[in-house]
Design brief:
single chain; about 200 residues; alpha/beta; Rossmann fold; 5-stranded parallel beta sheet; 9 helices; about 45% helix; globular
């Protein structure tokens, strides 16, 4: 196993193509970026990311939304929810987001991604300033009240083990680029907050 890995590494060489990230970005008249929406289940990550993507599309920008549930139907359908599988899930999404950013896209990724180390791993895949951590800051109490999939109820009943926020830790971002008070503000206000940050950073 080790020998095969070494041989593979020695023979796999990165090929630099003529059309660069800069060219693809210039064609789209935008800067590539990865907005990484993190927060508890039910915090509103996918809802806010989806609303932001709709607004960006309306404004003429090129985007792609990576959603936690959706990728488990294809790219990550072979993974479970053990700590190892969750880490691999985030690793794969990070690499995919990096490729999409290389295509010049504004990538919106909505994943619980509970551990700071995993989010830092994705950050380090990208150039400085291209990864924006977006903390969907909704309290556990509010998320449990919403419970759109009934998952908190099942977790409290012991039907789901290692559920983030109940019997599995969620590590809040320490210095997110965008901190969204999603438990108290409307979707429209939160989307506008994201747009303003993208403008400040000259991404749009």
């Amino acid at each position: 196993m080790t020998v095969q890995s070494v041989i593979k590494d020695e023979n796999v060489v990165w090929h630099q193509h003529t059309v660069t990230k800069e060219i693809r970005s210039d064609l789209k008249k935008q800067k590539p970026a990865v907005l990484w929406f993190t927060g508890l289940s039910g915090a509103g990550k996918s809802t806010i990311a989806g609303a932001l993507e709709s607004k960006l599309a309306e404004l003429g920008y090129h985007t792609y939304l990576l959603d936690g549930d959706n990728v488990r139907h294809g790219l990550c359908k072979d993974l479970g929810f053990s700590d190892h599988d969750r880490q691999e899930n985030i690793r794969r999404i990070g690499e995919l987001a990096k490729l999409m950013a290389d295509a010049g896209l504004i990538v919106l990724s909505a994943f619980i991604s509970p551990h700071r180390a995993e989010r830092q791993m994705v950050r380090e895949l990208l150039p400085e300033g291209e990864f924006l951590e977006v903390f969907v800051n909704t309290s556990l109490d509010e998320c449990e009240k919403r419970d759109p999939k009934g998952l908190y109820k099942k977790a409290r009943a012991g039907e789901i083990k290692h559920f983030t926020g109940i019997d599995s830790e969620y590590q809040q971002p320490l210095n997110p680029e965008i901190d969204l008070p999603a438990g108290t503000q409307s979707i429209e206000v939160l989307v506008e907050q994201c747009l303003e940050e993208l403008k400040v950073r000259s991404i749009i």
